Amino acid sequence: MVLFTSIALANPDSAALQKCWADQLPTLQDHGTLPQPELSEDQWALVATGQVARWRQQVDDEVDGAVGVGYLAYPMEQVWVGALDDVHDHLVDGLTEVWLLGTVPGYKVLYQHYDVPAPFSDRHWVVVVQNNPPLHAASEGVVWERIWDLDERATGALADVPEDTVPEPEKALWTPVNQGGWILMSCGEGVLVVYQVRTDIGGNIPEELVVRFAMAGLDSMIDHLGELAEGVPEHYVGEHFDIVRPDGTSIPTYESP
After folding, report:
1. Under 8 Å CB-to-CB from 97, ≥6 apart: which residues?
2. The predicted structure's pLDDT at residue 2
3. Are the beta carbons of 1 and 253 closer than 8 angstroms?
4. pTM for this structure?
5. Residues 177, 143 contacting (CB under 8 angstroms)
């Protein structure tokens, strides 16, 4: 166990944030899975004030994505546990999640069902979520990446979903594109957070509306991750299920005072 702490740390200034990113960019380019976003001076300045820089990521001949960058003034392991502990808290309202066969520490097969407001149909999908050990090793533990993409079995993966997980699952539509992830980078005494998502939810909901919806939620998602990180020393204790670093080693639980 590790000793309890919940003290928020100070934010680096814009120049310090940019240096952290520039120092690790070659390693990200060589070993990262997600695209490496380019931030303007104004965006870096926004992040330095504790706000979230967000924008639309245009991809040639593919579905556009949404990108959010922020800074959380908590230790890396608290932020990582906050992001991965999806059993006890969800970063997205209206989302039902169930771990499927094949899930092990550091690698997750995940069924997700999103309750879409009427008159639209609900959506569901199965993603494979995994850590990036080579990037963690090449950066000497500075950069932690967590990525997801649709299960290569596509709708065949739905056969592993337990019955009665959600009401009337046959009425939900499959999403043809669902990929993204987190880049977490140690910077100063906290963590530079990059979140990316690309989604095509199919049906008759326009892509433009989907991207705008994703972008609108980036601020609250990263802010909520900070709230979860703050609560980790009180929650990640005792017999909590094991959460591992990208190198596969377990993060020890905390000991409350």
Report:
1. 86, 90, 110, 111, 112, 113
2. 45
3. yes
4. 0.90
5. no
Domain 2-255: state its class: alpha beta
What is the per-residue pLDDT across 178-234, written as a single tens digit (0 to 9) for each?
A: 999 999 999 999 999 999 998 887 766 666 676 777 777 888 999 999 999 999 999
218 and 68 Cβ atoms separated by less than 8 Å: yes
The predicted-structure confidence for 227-249, as pLDDT tens digits, reads as follows: 999 999 999 998 899 999 999 99
List all residues 6 or more positions away from 113 whose beta carbon is below 8 Å from its beta carbon.
Answer: 95, 96, 97, 122, 123, 124, 165, 166, 169, 172
DSSP type of residue 94: T
The pair of structure tokens assigned to 92 is 């997205």
Domain ranges of the chain: 2-255
CA distances from 127 to 49, 87, 210, 241 (A): 34, 16, 18, 21
Amino acid, res. 16: A
Residues 6+ away with beta carbon under 8 Å from 156: none
